[in-house]
Amino acid sequence: MSETLYSLILFAIVATVTPGGATTLATASGAQFGFRRSVPLMAGIAAALAALAAAAATGLAALLQTLPVLELGMKLVGTSYLLWLAYRIARAGAPQSGGGGRTAPIGFSGGFALLMVNPKGWAMAFGAAASFAALAASPLDLALIMGSTFGLAAILSLALWCAGGVVLARTLRTEWQWRVLNGVLGLLLAASIVQLWLD
């Protein structure tokens, strides 16, 4: 049992720390607004991932497999949301520069919504629930284990990526450097959409 739990923890860490839309958003927020002001965004993403993992453990994610229209709708909404965020990030200048970017960080609800409309997150949570179902005797116990594991792993990995953004911000000196960084982060966030449609 403990080996299976260690495998789940390792899986959750790898799944949450690898680059993707959420990690790119955490990096951009850290660079633009600092770590403390990015905490609500990271908390929203982590809470959504924990909820997805718990829902998958109780079998709700099976809806995505039985209702292809729901999955298509989630992909379209998720793609639109990520493209809008990518555009806003790419247009941002240096912090407090008054550029075309965001003047306030994305909050808890924005981070939560990002994960809730992400079919890749649902598929990952559903696959993990199926793979690690032997960890608990009941779906509710499995939901508690899955939700807490993925939520904690997400908080740790997002904090790491956000801190990386803070470090980047300390090395940038000119408006041009900020434009390049924000353009690259916007492009990376937009590129993460490809994964939504390939899975």
Oligomer: single chain
The secondary structure category is: mainly alpha
Q: What is the domain tally?
A: 1
Which sheet architecture does the biggest sheet show?
A: none
Descriptive keywords:
single chain; 199 residues; 80% helix; globular
Strand-helix topology:
Layout: H1 2-17, H2 21-33, H3 35-57, H4 62-66, H5 68-91, H6 108-116, H7 119-131, H8 139-171, H9 175-191, H10 193-198
Helix pairs in contact: 1-8, 2-3, 2-8, 2-9, 3-6, 3-7, 3-8, 5-9
Model description:
The protein is an all-alpha fold and 199 residues long. The chain is built from ten helices and no strands. The chain has one domain. Helix 3 packs antiparallel against helix 8. The protein is globular, with a radius of gyration of 17 Å.
Q: What's a quick, concise take on this entry?
A:
The chain has ten helices and no strands.
